[in-house]
Amino acid sequence: MKPGTSSSDKAFSVIIPTFNRAASLSRVLRGLCGQAYPADLMEVVVVSDGSTDGSAQVVRNLHVPFRLKLFEQPNRGPAAARNLGIEHSRGPFVLFLDDDVIPSPCLVAEHARGHGTMSDLALVGPLLPAKTPRSPWSRWEAWTLQRQYEAIGAGEWSMTFRQFFTGNASLRLEHLQRTGGFDTRFRRAEDVELGLRLSKMGVRFVFNPAAGVDHIAERRFGAWLRASYEYGRAETVMRMTTDPLNPWVLTEFHRRHQLTQRLVCWELRHRRAAQALPAIAFLAAHGVSLLQRPRGVYAICSAIFNLTYWRGVSDGLGGTARALELLGAASSSVAGPLKGIRSGGD
């Protein structure tokens, strides 16, 4: 330990917002009990966000080696729940975990090691599938996330605020206090919005593949699509208040595969007809999955996710006409405005 430091300088407050996931919350807390990190340097702050399934009682009945705090509030969303946790955290470090992850024994130690003596880091660890998801769209999501981790590890991508996923992320409490915490207007992408403000403060984002958690990555098709839409809308809204909007929209859109660009423009022009696409995609993904054609499944899921995301962007911009105008697709032909656009990514 360096001169002038003490063990308390590496203390962590682990904040877990939870809503009606009593069983998985119990697994999270049991995983934290087995950490290869001094228990006296850990506190866990659980915020029950309007749970009605006995989650609070599960927490009260647990015997743990660390200090455990429980707070309850009416359902106000994860941003408000995390803010309440921040308010009651001692720090100096805060580790955010979701209520559906299983911490590895070295999780807290790896977060501590990753920060080292640096004071300006936000450290993100991977969300690894606890098991192979059953649904095609959940498998696609897990595969996409893993591919992103591999690209970051290979140096193909740089970590940015857009990878600040608070299912498994840590930073200093003082940075959270300086930003004012999460923006409670956001029920989705609230962590990315906070990450954007942190980046403007000079906080750097780093990835530590050894600080992993197993993620129980399974949700219904409708919830998956709603998440896609809400991410698109939320990112558009947050960009409108913090960044020049037009360059971001154009850059993001032009980075997409050319086929994706064409599909998005078609969907924006024919929104009524496009309402049938989710049901078609649902059936197609299941059918191709039964034929054991993973590439086909991923192509279908990627297409419908992108379409729904850009529908959210369109609504965030104020409607279809504005979106088409910004995407340079205001003419009746989709092909014309897309000529010369370099494809890349999905």
Notes on the structure:
By secondary structure, the protein is of the alpha/beta class. It folds into two domains: 7-215, Spore Coat Polysaccharide Biosynthesis Protein SpsA, Chain A (Alpha-Beta Complex), CATH 3.90.550.10; 221-338, no CATH class. The protein has 15 helices and ten strands. The protein has helices at residues 22-33, 55-61, 78-87, 107-115, 136-153, 173-179, 190-200, 221-242, 245-255, 258-269, 271-274, 277-290, 294-317, 320-326, 335-338; strands at 12-18, 42-49, 67-73, 93-97, 101-103, 121-124, 127-129, 168-172, 204-207, 213-215. The strands form two sheets. The protein has a seven-stranded mixed β-sheet with strand order 3-2-1-4-8-6-9, sandwiched between helices. A three-stranded mixed β-sheet has the order 5-10-7. Helix 12 runs antiparallel to helix 13 (294-317) and helix 13 (294-317) packs across helix 14 (320-326). The radius of gyration is 21 Å and the shape is globular. The N and C termini lie far apart (46 Å). The relative contact order is 0.11. Residues 1-5 and 329-346 have low confidence and may be disordered.
